[in-house]
Design goal:
Blueprint (H helix, E strand, L loop, with lengths): L3 E9 L7 E8 L4 E5 L6 H8 L5 E8 L6 E4 L11 H11 L4 H14 L15 H14 L4 E5 L7 H16 L3 E6 L2 H7 L2 E6 L2 E6 L1 H8 L6 H9 L4
């Protein structure tokens, strides 16, 4: 059984507005699924639809995981202005009924990994973009979800934080979680993702493993970038 099934006929931010259409895919246990497309292609709109943040959605989003718990890590971090980093973590722990023992263990580990232990009693709204992104990642990993929904996670992260983020994702995947990751950085996506959903101008262009996509393009040795360019360019 898949962890997440997405079937969107059409959706937008306002009534009668259509930004994305005919988007259908599933996310499996242990799968890192890349949601691929250039800026403005509709990736973030799809993620907002999955997160229940679109008022105009015609379709169905189904979470099938045992916990039916997902972590949404947006491209633009969102915080309560009056809460410290630790208070944000405590709020997430309370919302997902984490035990005190588990909360303390995971919090200490994640703060150490992302090197935010010394600022845990400070306000994230005053952090740099990179530190804010790390805070959102910590909250996501803290709640141990079935599904991670991550929008452009590499923007603002330094190389060390990126390495730590990918290592934690790998652990979560081996434990059976699924990851839907939106990115326009195709060379990175090709290296880390198991399969892909290619989006252009709000439409689903192609989906599957890189080998599936290569067969669709009849380009047996092509990179993900070359396949995407073939499918969306003028050279079809």
């Amino acid at each position: 059984m898949s962890l997440l099934d997405v079937s969107i006929k059409h959706a937008g931010y306002m009534k009668n507005e259509v930004i994305i259409r005919n988007i259908n895919f599933s996310l499996k246990h242990g799968e890192l699924l890349g949601l691929i497309g250039p800026n403005g292609s509709g990736k973030s709109t799809i993620i907002k639809a999955i997160a229940g943040l679109l008022p105009n959605l015609h379709g169905e989003i189904i979470f099938n995981g045992q916990q039916k718990r997902y972590a949404y890590i947006p491209e633009q971090p969102v915080f309560y202005e009056e809460l410290t980093l630790m208070e944000h973590l405590e709020l997430a722990a309370a919302a997902y009924s984490l035990t005190d023992r588990l909360f303390e263990k995971k919090t200490e580990e994640l703060l150490r990994i992302f090197k935010l232990h010394d600022v845990k009693h400070q306000l994230p709204v005053n952090f740099s973009k990179g530190m804010q992104q790390k805070t959102m990642l910590i909250i996501g990993f803290l709640i141990n979800p079935d599904v991670f929904v991550v929008d452009e996670p590499f923007i603002g992260l330094d190389p060390r934080a990126t390495k730590n983020f990918l290592a934690l994702l790998d652990i979560a995947l081996k434990q059976g979680a699924g990851v839907l990751m939106s990115t326009h950085i195709l060379d990175t996506a090709e290296k880390i993702c198991n399969s892909f959903v290619l989006i252009s101008d709000g439409n689903l262009v192609c989906k599957g493993t890189l080998e599936d996509i290569r067969r669709t393009c009849n380009l047996p040795r092509a990179s993900l970038f070359d396949c995407f360019d073939y499918l969306t360019g003028d050279n079809k």
